[in-house]
Specification:
heterotrimer, A mainly alpha, B alpha/beta, C alpha+beta, A: mainly alpha, two-stranded antiparallel ribbon, 11 helices, globular, C: alpha+beta, outer membrane lipoprotein receptor (LolB), chain A, Protein Transport Mog1p, Chain A, 2 domains, eight-stranded antiparallel beta sheet, 20 strands, 23% helix, 38% strand
């Protein structure tokens, strides 16, 4: 069933379209930056954006910062929202279940496909933005004196190996965050027969969480908001790495994954399939 | 093969299936008939473990459902409420995905299984275009192919001929009969009486969630003890059979008589010409009409709440807006959809000319078998004038 | 099932903080002694400074306003008063300050620049490092040396046992109601400080370590091996007067509102006057006209009291526990800024005196 889900994923034009759009945004930003040579002022704009003009090796990190707040969760919500509700809407869900595929297997396969989609999307964003960054802004040899190296947020120079490791850490962390969010969307997907409805409900959660995060009065519930630690991937680029929020974020996302995957399972296993 | 006891499903306050005892035996071609909204689909879904029963027991292939779903369902081919496929993939790819998804779907032999299923439903020449470009009939065939993929010993089909043209319907019927003769039990749910009448050996009739009738088709269609006689000498015949004539219409007489052959012989002996004679059997339509209520999708205005009404239903709540069981006599216009009514199966061609139909490639869709003529005529209860059923498979005279 | 899982999620942080249970009584004076000596105790951690003063943005002091009006996350590595580092973190970068034997270095990621600071200003612009719990606690307790403290028992801070003491200033003029300090029981380093204005229920400034270890930081983090390929510049450490572009040639009165001018460090005060002692001390400094006007405007928007007095104008704003007064002395066409954690009554009295004295001086 997992193999089937992956074959479906690979054969869907929509999947590749959304990944293509995710890659296109950073590429567009890179082209505009290189043409205008106008970096955002320090402290404004996306993370790393002011630094990439001097060093293309940092562009993957800047690209992640660009897609993380809205576009990546949007793609994840659409994909995960479609997971069960989409199959219900086309009617293929009932045929899978009478094939028979057990409901748990369907759900696990959907979760695995979701994880693969997230990894695939982020990897594509990183790879394309690395190529674009190196082509447009150079390898950082002039800026840092070493090809493929970059200056960390704390000013310490990171060698190519170190930079790659930290980028991998950041990617892994973002994957976990997206998986946590995706499991919320998956839960809504088991509630509804409308893929769009499920995706919108997940986005509503995202927006509500983001709004609450900016509110000082909501301080007491902030540690539990799904988006609270999303931006902590940037802590991989501090020196020494600030693990505190990364750890909290991983624990929180693990809880969200367990909670909402469990809720999806509880709901889906007992559900009457009337679509 | 399928046995349910007291099967009940409630959705909130609505009882969709109410205490159904279904009994489908091995080798049956079982027709499950009922108006729209009578709970057919819900019952089929319960048989397949898609919907959980509120009460009652289900046994499929000798094992309890849904507990034994993992053992039972691999031997069941099913089509529930129309076919479904991933629209952006080709039919072949769809079948191959469904094959791979479940048990026994190993890579080995998959191509053969898929090609075999496609060939059986007449789609072997289908190209790589996506299912979204398929005609309704092609999708229906693809859905059947998916049901046949595992070589099932039980086929559960919901409206399998929906969207097919007459030739396609005939093909599928022949296929089902052939499969049945090869040992496959066929459970077919339909609202098309003619379809069931032509295909099935046993029928169950469900109305408002209750099983109202379940019997062999031959028993249901037992002779009525009446004979239809057509004669140019109709007046003389009527005079001869005076007291036994039930109805007269032009040259046609309906008379009470136990044996059509004997009556024929008697008339001929007396020199009366007979241009047609047939034993009158009840049609399935009559059986269904006698045993079910209104069309399931009628929503009538409540009857004029006159004084008599108020007397008889003093507790009627003001929030009630419909009385489906009490058709408003003032509403003259009958809905012409009449889904559960038979009407005519569109002129079925001679069996010898039935070949492969164009569904697999060119047809958008054939004449809609559901497009039925005015159903009002068929609703006149007790009208023994038989419906104009044409195209009995082997030219069998039914009247 | 859903409820149980939710409980697990919500419970996680609570379990962490509940590790240590408070118990026992604390000798407040001894604890105060420990705090005073704690500047020799190496430690490291992550602190969060939460200010909730509804302070208007003061011209040229935006960084300071941000410190007391919002949430600032600071990583701190402390070896000794001569060797430490703190990083102010933001979601897009950080600003790190190193103290070494060679002076202070500031790395600003956004500007891609290392700055070496030289000199010690008499009145430095407050920065995040000053509000870290150890510095804030030592500063406040030293300033209020005459005030008694009482014990508060113990609680858990950053998952460690901390003992508390409370300072309630006796000085009737200060606006500070109380200062609560919790001290890491094992190391004696203050790990949580809450400053509550007089008459208020909730603290307006909370500085707390959320992660703390009394361990000596490694040389690698304390050595500013930063920005090897970035910009470098050397500047004199900015003092408050410099930041505001104050006029340095002005003499300030020897006493204001009954408080005498306190000479700081014996260095030239350059026109900045620090008056009084303890928590009720305040600062008076002459500012250029545009800064004075902008400050009066900002204060006006924040609901300041704007009075016209003979020969001048006094705009006074109380943002407990801080009071800010902008003064215009008409005859000499001078603007002054008075800031302190004292009652506005005191600052207004000082303002009236300033106007009168500057008139007499000419």
């Amino acid at each position: 069933m997992i193999a089937v889900e992956l074959r479906k994923l690979a054969s869907r034009p929509r999947v590749w379209l959304s990944i293509g759009l995710l890659c296109a945004l950073p590429a567009l930003v890179a082209v505009l930056l290189s043409v205008s040579n106008l970096a955002p002022p320090p402290g404004q704009g996306g993370a790393f954006l002011s630094a990439v003009l001097r060093n293309g090796a940092l562009f993957p990190a800047a690209a992640l910062a660009l897609v993380l707040p809205v576009f990546l969760p949007l793609a994840v919500a659409v994909f995960a929202g479609d997971a069960v509700a989409g199959e219900a809407a086309t009617g293929t869900l009932r045929y899978l279940l009478v094939r028979p595929v057990s409901r748990s297997r369907v759900l696990v396969a959907k979760m695995v496909a979701l994880a693969v989609f997230i990894v695939l999307a982020i990897t594509m964003v990183v790879v394309t933005s690395l190529v674009v960054g190196l082509a447009l802004f150079g390898t950082g040899a002039e800026a840092v004196g070493q090809s493929g190296a970059a200056t960390s947020l704390s000013g310490v120079t990171l060698g190519p190996g170190e930079l790659a490791l930290r980028l991998l850490g950041a990617i892994g962390y973002i994957v976990v965050c997206m998986l946590g969010f995706g499991s919320i969307a998956l839960f809504f997907s088991t509630l509804s027969d409308s893929a769009i409805g499920a995706a919108l409900a997940a986005l509503a959660v995202l927006i509500a969480s983001s709004v609450l995060q900016t509110l000082q009065a909501a301080d007491s519930i902030k540690p539990y908001l799904p988006t609270n630690y999303w931006l902590s991937w940037i802590d991989f680029f501090r020196d020494p790495i600030l693990w505190r929020n990364i750890d909290s974020g991983l624990v929180l996302q693990a809880c969200y994954i367990a909670l909402f995957f469990g809720a999806s399972w509880a709901n889906f296993a007992a559900k009457d399939i009337t679509s | 093969m399928i046995r349910t006891r007291g099967l009940t499903k409630r959705f909130g306050r609505i009882t969709a299936v109410d205490g159904v005892d279904l009994d489908v035996r091995a080798g049956d071609r079982f027709g499950f008939l009922g108006p729209n909204g009578s709970g057919k689909t819900t019952l089929v879904r319960m048989l397949l473990g898609l919907v959980h029963a509120t009460a009652g027991e289900i046994e499929v292939l000798g094992e309890r459902m849904p507990a034994a779903a993992a053992r039972v369902l691999p031997r069941v081919g099913a089509m529930v409420e129309g076919p479904a496929a991933y629209p952006h993939l080709s039919g072949r790819r769809n079948l191959s995905l469904f094959d791979a998804a479940g048990p026994g779907g190993g890579r080995r032999g998959r191509v053969d299984r898929v090609e075999d299923a496609l060939a059986r439903v007449g789609l072997s020449g289908v190209d790589k275009r996506a299912v979204s470009a398929y005609s309704l009939g092609m999708r229906q065939r693809l859905g059947l192919a998916a049901a046949l993929l595992r070589g099932p010993s039980l086929l559960i089909l919901d409206e399998p001929t929906n969207g097919l043209d007459p030739k396609g319907i005939r093909e599928i019927r022949d296929l089902l009969i052939a499969l049945n003769e090869g040992g496959t039990t066929v459970f077919l749910s339909s609202h098309l009486l003619a379809e069931v009448e032509l295909l099935c050996t046993r029928v169950g009739i469900v109305d408002r969630g209750r099983m109202v009738l379940q019997d062999d088709l031959d028993n249901l269609r037992a002779p009525t003890g009446q004979v239809l006689v057509r004669s140019p000498d109709v007046a003389a015949v009527a005079a001869l059979l005076a007291g036994r004539v039930v109805a007269r219409d032009g040259e046609e007489l309906t008379v009470r008589h136990a044996d059509a052959a004997e009556l024929n012989a008697e008339l001929v002996r007396r020199g009366l010409r007979v241009s047609g004679i047939a034993e009158l059997r009840r049609t399935l339509e009559q059986v269904v009409l006698e045993s079910t209520g209104d069309s399931g999708d009628r929503v009538d205005r409540p009857p004029d709440p006159g004084a008599a009404q108020r007397r008889t239903r003093p507790t009627r709540g003001g929030d009630r807006t419909d009385h489906p069981r009490e058709p408003d006599p003032t509403v003259a216009e009958r809905p012409t959809t009449g889904d559960h009514l038979p009407g005519e199966t569109p002129g079925e061609p001679d069996a010898t000319t039935t070949g492969r139909t164009g569904d697999s490639a060119t047809h958008r869709r054939g004449p809609d078998p559901e497009a039925e003529p005015d159903s009002a005529a068929g609703r006149i209860s007790g009208d023994l004038h038989p419906g104009d059923h044409t195209g009995a498979p082997d030219g069998e005279v039914r009247r | 099932m859903l409820v149980a899982a939710l409980a697990v999620v919500l419970g996680t942080p609570a379990i962490v903080t509940a590790v240590t249970a408070p118990a026992g009584t604390v000798d407040a004076s001894a604890l105060r002694e420990r705090v005073a000596r704690s500047d020799r105790q190496a430690h490291q951690g992550v602190a969060v400074i939460r200010g909730s003063l509804p302070l208007p943005v003061l011209p040229k002091l935006e960084d300071v306003s941000a410190l007391v009006t919002g949430v600032t996350t600071v990583r701190s590595w402390y070896d000794s008063p001569e060797r430490w580092r703190f990083d102010v973190l933001s979601t897009v970068g950080e600003r790190d300050t190193y103290r070494t034997a060679d002076g202070e270095f500031v790395w600003d990621y956004g500007a891609d620049q290392v700055t070496q600071l030289v000199g010690t200003p008499p009145v430095r612009v407050p920065r995040a490092g000053d509000l870290l719990p150890p510095d804030l606690a030592r500063g406040l307790l030293a300033t209020a040396a005459g005030d008694a403290v009482s014990g508060l028992g113990a609680r858990a801070v950053a998952g460690r046992r901390a003992e508390g003491l409370r300072l309630v200033p006796a000085d009737p003029d200060t606006t500070i109601g109380r200062v609560d300090v919790w001290v890491d029981a094992a190391s004696g380093v203050p790990v949580l400080v809450e400053v509550t204005p007089r008459g208020a229920e909730r603290p307006v400034l909370v500085s707390a370590f959320e992660e703390f270890a009394p361990d000596r930081p490694g040389d690698d983090v304390l050595t500013p091996d930063v920005g090897r390929d970035s910009g470098f510049s050397t500047v004199e450490a900015p003092d408050l007067a410099g930041a505001l572009g104050a006029l340095g040639d002005d003499d300030v009165p020897a006493s204001l509102a009954g408080r005498s001018l306190r000479q700081t460090d014996g260095a030239g005060v350059r026109g900045v006057g620090v008056y009084g002692t303890g928590l009720s001390s305040f600062v008076a400094l002459p500012v250029p006209r545009e800064v004075g006007l902008a400050a009066a405007d900002a204060g006006g928007k924040a609901g300041a009291r704007d009075e016209t007095v003979p020969n001048g104008r006094v705009v006074s704003l109380a943002v407990a526990p801080l009071s800010v007064v902008v003064v215009r002395a008409q005859r000499v066409r001078r603007w002054y800024l008075l800031v302190g954690m004292v009652d506005t009554v005191v600052l207004r009295a000082a303002a009236t005196e300033l106007i009168a004295q500057s008139g007499r001086g000419r």
